[in-house]
Amino acid sequence: MKELFGDSTRGGEWAAVRLWIDGQRIVRADAPGLDRDLTGLTLLEAAAVGGETLAVDALANAIGPEVAAAPDGARVAVAMSGGVDSAVALLEAGGDAVGVTLRLWIDPRGPDTERACCSPSAVIEARRTCHARGLPHVALDLRQEFREAVVAPFVREYASGATPNPCVRCNGAFRFDELVAFADRIGAKRLVTGHYARIVERNGRLAIGRAVDARKDQSYMLAAVDPSLLERLWFPLGGQTKEQTRADALAAGLAAAARPESQEACFLGGGDYRTFLERSGLETARGPLVDEAGAVLGTHDGFWRFTPGQRRGLGVSGSEPLYALGTDRRTNTVVVGPRRSLARTRIFVRGRVEPGATKIEAKLRHRSPAVPASVVETEAGFDLHLDEPAYGVAAGQAAVLYVDDAVVGSGVITGSA
Fold it and tell me: Is residue 60 part of a domain?
């Protein structure tokens, strides 16, 4: 017999749950505030029991690390964020779904921590969505693991002069690895998420594909997902628009239908990444802001506050609009110049590309359009030769390669010319 304990506090109130289990079955429960006695239930069955918010949260904290189940071909795990996309994905998943939410680290000093997709409030909303349909919901507390795997590299890379994309790192490795591991633990054959992307077949293999809704397409963020996982993934929203998703939520009477979008870099806590980096230890240090010839035009408060292509915050003007062209962390220098000086036609990437993929479209930032390019494989990864210049190319960002709508390669930009 094993004893499990979980508690939760919010607004000065506190609740606790204590369970005694034999294998996966509860043989005794001290769990006030729940809708029913847990004795005799499995941990997975208990994950579907509702009640007072704090009591249910305490129960979730108790069973999250322990819940498991034998393989069941009909069972699916559904990643839940508390928003409308994952709520509709849950609808599509059917009656054998198990919701799972990853509780990730958020800077407690951020101005709006509750808007994040992994905040305590988001976890509660995701759980309510599942319980309203009589489905289990499990929360996994991965705050420390996330901070080490995603947040710490984000800070280090900015300090080194790069411009990282933490959402690519999170989705491409951390998040899906954890979600698939959970699916394995509860015996679920498939993992469902509310991402706007598709799984497509290319040359006899599965690949991430662009979503039908180009405005919401998240294939860029998912490009680095391990290909061996794709046969288990299902993105039910990839074939529809955001408007259709909200309409589906309204038709089903889901509370999530009217919820606003969550922010992308959730750990910032609603603030600007520069203020987060300052709170994380990057120093405010006065340095020169120079033109391409080295003439000093002004000063700045830290090279890490600037990324190629940036116009706002330079504090200087010229005969034509000026942009940040690059930085030198050793001298704490920011170089500025006209937009034409940002033009790059050769991109160096550390990553992988599908064998035989030579003529592709390359997306070099999440919000930038894809550009036609040729690929040349190298020892470190590949070089891209763009058919037309790209502007604002930044080391640390992801380069994602497409043939038609299929992702055929991805990696981290290491330089450009």
Answer: yes
The verdict on whether 167 is a catalytic residue reads no
Any residues with CB less than 8 A from the CB of 243 and at least 6 apart, and which?
Answer: none
Do the Cβ atoms of 164 and 153 come closer than 8 Å?
Answer: yes
- Cβ atoms of 307 and 300 within 8 Å: the answer is no
Q: Are residues 97 and 193 in the same domain?
A: yes
- Residues 143 and 104 sit within 8 Å (Cβ to Cβ): yes
For 22, the domain range is 1-67
Look at 239-243, 271-275, 360-364 and tell me which has the smallest mean pLDDT.
Answer: 271-275
Query: How many domains does one find in the chain?
Result: 4
Residue 78 and residue 225 share a domain: yes
Q: Provide the whole-model pTM.
A: 0.94
Considering 118, 130, 167, 170, which one is annotated as catalytic? 170
pLDDT of amino acid 264: 60
In the block, which residue shows the tokens 């239908």? Answer: 257
The pLDDT score that the predictor gives to residue 19 is 98
> Which of 118, 130, 167, 266 is the catalytic position?
266
Over residues 91-106, mean pLDDT: 94
What are φ and ψ of residue 61, in 5° steps? Answer: -65, -30
* Burial state string for 231-261 with b = 16 or more CB within 10 A and e = fewer than 16: ebbbbbbbebbbeebbebbeeeebebbebee
Does 312 have pLDDT greater than 70?
yes
> Would residue 266 show up in a list of annotated catalytic residues for this protein?
yes
